[in-house]
Amino acid sequence: MKFVQKEFSCTFEEKKSKFIAHLMPYDLFDEVMIRLKNEHPKARHHVYAYRYLNEFEQIVENSGDDGEPKGTSGKPSLAVLAGNELINTAVIIVRYFGGIKLGTGGLVRAYGDSVNEVIKIASFVEYQKLITKTLICDYSELSKLEYLLSQENINIKSKEFTNQINLQIELTIEQFEELKALLSRNILVV
To answer: Residue limits of the Impact N-terminal domain (predicted)?
Structure first.
């Protein structure tokens, strides 16, 4: 499974209709939809599809046809996302009608092709399940610890300063096993 970390867009034309596909991280979906409706007020349709992992590691999917005949736009777009094993990713296709009706088969192909085209130009990151751990250290250990975490490409989610420092980190299980061997004995792992 893989996902995008930024927005990509691509324009596809079919019988004078223009399909502008925008592929983005799922958490940007609402923001991008509002932006695209403002940028393209004369577009006939704003079709969407998305897939994301919920807190139970289950894939949640949804799509919308936005006035196109039922099942001719959102579902084929979703099928392309699923076929490419994309998660935490959304696509919005802005359609400008070109005056020639495409028919149901033509719509299915056009929407599917527009999503495939934007996927071709996008760059993806392989999904890995992350765990959260807390590291507790003294102030004197902080700079060494932060340096070690940056060298190991481990994300620091938060820092809490009390009589000691609590660093909440996000990493894969494999990274955690490697990190344990590198930590000094003064650092507690919770």
So the answer is: 15-119
**Burial bucket for residue 73 (CB in 10 Å: 0-12, 13-18, 19+):** buried
Judge contact between 85 and 78, C-beta under 8 A: no
Give the CATH number, domain containing residue 97: 3.30.230.30
Q: Which of 131, 91, 133 is nearest to 114 (CA)?
A: 91
Counting the structural domains of the chain, the total is: 2
Strand order of the β-sheet with 188-189 is: 155-161, 165-171, 131-137, 188-189
Query: Above 90 in pLDDT, residue 57?
Result: no
Domain limits for position 148: 131-189
Tell the residue number behind the tokens 């994301």, with chain if given.
52
> pLDDT at residue 188 above 80?
no
